[in-house]
Amino acid sequence: MLECQKHLFALDPDITYLNSASISAIPFAVEQAGAAGVAVKVKPWRRDLAAADRVVEETRQAAADLIGARADDIAIIGAVSYGIATVCANTRMAPGARILLLDGEHSSLILCWSAFARDTGAVLDFVARPADGDWTAAVLEAVERPGAPPIGIAALTPLIWSDGALVDLADIAPVLRRRGVPLLIDATQAVGVMPIDVKLLQPDFLVFPSYKWVLGPYGLAFLYVAPHRQSGRPLEEHAGNRRGVDLPGAGPVETLPFLDGARRFDRGERDSFITIPMVHAGLRLIATFGRDRIEERLRHLTDRFADRIADLPLRFPPRHARVPHIIGLRFPGTLPEGIVERMAAERIFVSLRGGGLRISPHVYNDDADLDRCADWLRGNALGR
pLDDT by residue (tens digit) across 263-308? Predict the structure, then answer.
C-alpha cells in the first residue's frame, strides 16, 4: 500500500485536512512549478516556446493516460462548467426528450442543462435518491421506465458528490449504449482515484478538473471528446485551435480549419505558463504513486474511519456501496449547529454537503488524521 505522502506537502503538524473533495492541497513540486511559471512572466524574454509546447502536450497525454484515452481525444479547458457548456452547445434533441440527471447533483451540471431544457423544450429527469441506497439500480430503472419519453442525453457521475455513494457506470453505460443514448460523465470526484476507462465506458464526453484529486491548481480542466464527436463546434474562436496560423502564406485566419481531434475544443490561452506546468507536475506525481495504490490507501483510511464511528448514530453508505475516498455522514435529526466551524476551530477541516458532513482524505492523510476526526465526532457532535 502507498505510504502517507504528507512530507511532500506544506501541511502544518496540527492540521487535519479532510476536505480534498472541495480542493486538495498541492505538493511542493506543484508549488515550485507554479513559481517557475510566475518567474517566466516576470522576465518573459526568457520563455522557451518550444519547451512550453512540449509541456502542454505532455500534460494532455498524462491526462489521457488517467482515463485510458488518446491525447488526440483530450481538450484543455478552464473548468468543468466550460466542458459541460461545450457539450450543451454540441447537443441536439427533440422537445420533450429527457435529460437524465441524479437528484442533488452539483450546480455545474444542473445549471447548464436547466438552461438547455428551457431553450429546447427538453425535460430534466432527476433520478431520486433511492431508499435502499442503490443508485445504480435506480438509474437503470429510470433508463428503462416503461412509457417514459426517450432520453436525449444522460449526464451522470460515478459517485454522489455529497456522500460518496457509488454509481456503477460500468453497469449503466452498456444499457445506455444499446439504447443509443449519449453519455456525458462528470468525473470531477473520480479521476485520480477511481478506475475510469473510456474504452470500457465509451462515453461521448467526460470532464474532470485538476484542483481536486490530481493535485493540480485551480482554473484548469480536461474534456474527453469521443472520436465520433470531434467535428463539433468549440465554444471559443481563437488562433490556438486553428491549423497553420503561424505558417507563411497561411491566408486569413478566418479561413483556416480547426485543429484535428479534440484540440479544437481547447480554451483560449491554453498555454498557461503558470498552471500548465503545475498540472503537469501533479499528474506526474499521481502516475508515480499509481492510481490503484492511491485507491487502496484511501480505501484503508475511509474504512478505518467507518469502523471507528460504527457504533455512533450516524448514517453513511456501506462499504460495498461507497467509493474509496469520500464518506458522507448524516446525523439523526438536524445537523449539529455550526459543526463545520467548530471542527475548524479545532484545526479539523471537512465540509458540509447535501445536508451531511463530507470527509475526504488524500495521500497526505494518515491513520491519526482519521482517528482524530472520529474522536472529535464522538466527543463533541452527538451530545456525549
Answer: 999 999 998 999 999 999 999 999 999 999 999 999 999 999 999 9
Q: How far apart are CA 77 and CA 71, in angstroms?
A: 14
Using a CB cutoff of 8 Å and minimum separation of 24, what contacts does 113-120 make? 113/84, 113/88, 113/155, 115/88, 116/88, 116/91, 120/93, 120/95
What are the grid coordinates assigned to 367, written together? 491513520
Residue 384 clears pLDDT 50, i.e. is over it: no
Residue position matching grid coordinates 498555454: 271
Vertex 163: Cα angle to 12 and 102 (nearest 5):
135
The H helix count followed by the E strand count for the chain is 11, 12
Mean pLDDT of 139-151: 96
Write the pLDDT tens digit of every residue in 64-109.
999 999 999 999 999 999 999 999 999 999 999 999 999 999 898 9
343-351 mean pLDDT: 97
Give the residue carrying C-alpha cell 512530507: 7
Separation of alpha carbons 116 and 112, rounded Å:
6
Q: Where residue 244 falls among pLDDT bands split at 50, 70, 90?
A: low
Nine cell digits for residue 72: 488526440
Vertex 23, ends 22 and 27: CA angle to 5°?
155
Question: CB of 100 within 8 A of CB of 142?
Answer: yes
Distance CA 40, CA 34 (A): 10
Regarding beta strands 205-209 and 221-225, do their DSSP bridges make them parallel or antiparallel, or are they unpaired?
antiparallel
Contacting residues for 19 by C-beta, under 8 A, at least 6 apart: 349, 350, 351, 358, 360
Q: What is the pLDDT of residue 246?
A: 65
Mean pLDDT computed over 342-346 = 96
CA angle, 56 then 7 then 28, to 5°? 30
Per the document, the length of the chain is 384
Q: What angle do CA 20, 25, 28 make, to 5 degrees?
A: 155
Distances (CA, A) of 383 to 355, 359, 379, 380: 19, 20, 8, 6
**Residue for cell digits 474504512?**
303
Neighbours of 94 (CB within 10 A): 11
